[in-house]
Amino acid sequence: MRRICYISGTRADFGLMRSTLQILRDHVEVDLAVIATGMHLSPWYGNTVEEIEAAGLRIAARVPVPLEPATGATMARNIGTMVSAFVDTLESERPDAVLLLGDRGEMLAGALAGIHLNIPVAHIHGGERSGTVDEPVRHAISKLSHLHFAATDEARERLVRMGEDPDRIHVTGAPGLDGLMDGELPDRDEVLRLHGLDPARPFALMVYHPVLQEAETAADDTRRILKSLADAGLQTLALMPNADAGSEGVREALGEAKGQPGLTVRTHLARPAFIAAMAHADLMIGNSSAGIIEAASFGTPVLNVGPRQNLRERNANVLDVPATEAALADGVARLLAQGRLAPHNVYGDGRAGERIARLLATTPLDGTLMMKVNGY
């Protein structure tokens, strides 16, 4: 039986991976454990470690790290803390592979710990571009990894150009699409009433995270986004940001606006509630990867603000604008006039989890895999 250890640090990565992790949990040839760290362990961010437990997943370790002050220095120090703690857990668990997703610091720490313990590292969503600090971190994780589960053909080709062995790169699709279309969504009126909004009026789903290189402007950017929605007559369901540099500014601006008519601010939405809001929103706005990846499966129009998702593959529902008052107003008006598109998603068919589980259960994890060299 293969022992797999997944590292999770945020509500976002766990929401994307929940279906895949449950497939792994139920696989007869896999024993899965999760290391929970970062925002999962903070009541301020919803204590979302409880969602991991509710999904029936075994938690191998809880690795707390300070989340304040929300600065680049805190983020960097936490990587060191997590490397040390992950080494202790991985030595105890002795997994056959470490599974990671995306571009966050906890995933980089997991890759560093795994490769130095001679444990194969499997990386999901490698080969994608995203600008800001996220892109070099993502590529660093890819260079420390031994297996790649790419979301698209374009991402696969970029990994090959980075020197990764083509035989170790598998196009699985994005796991965040798995289960999106399964089951019935609550109806729109129910979703809006749940969040204290008027079902007779249009609404926007806002998810805006700070960018390290633009942390000082995060508060003003948030205020401009909120103003553009209010000026367009939209109600807004806004989520609090991740605990990254600049998040205090986003929180400050959302806190100032709390109580305004037509605005609801939530610390966290469980995955089903988030999906329902995204599916029914007349507009999604901000810079979340959910707008780039998942929203297209519902045809939801997305206004992507600023550089956080820079150069990432787009679906036809995404319009990019800078965080200026004029550009935001124009972008909101254009997407509302355009309306919802037919669902089509370049990021896959919603079956990534079963492909990832099959590959983790059957791919040879021998010494040859660990002898990594660039292919150029």
Please sum up the structure shown.
The protein has 376 residues and is α/β, with parallel strands linked by helices.
Topology (elements, then pairings):
Layout: E1 2-8, H1 11-26, E2 30-37, H2 49-54, E3 59-63, H3 72-93, E4 97-101, H4 105-116, E5 121-124, H5 134-143, E6 147-150, H6 153-161, E7 169-171, H7 188-194, E8 203-207, H8 218-231, E9 235-239, H9 247-257, E10 263-266, H10 271-280, E11 283-286, H11 289-292, E12 302-305, E13 318-321, H12 325-338, H13 352-362, H14 367-370
Parallel strand pairs: 1-2, 1-4, 2-3, 4-5, 5-6, 6-7, 8-9, 8-11, 9-10, 11-12, 12-13
Helix pairs in contact: 1-13, 3-4, 4-5, 8-9, 8-12
Task: Give the H and E element order.
Answer: EHEHEHEHEHEHEHEHEHEHEHEEHHH
Judged by helices, strands and strand pairing, the structural class is alpha/beta
Q: Order of strands in the sheet with the most strands? A: 3-2-1-4-5-6-7
Number of helical segments with 4 or more residues? 14
What percentage of residues falls in helices of 4 or more residues?
25-40%
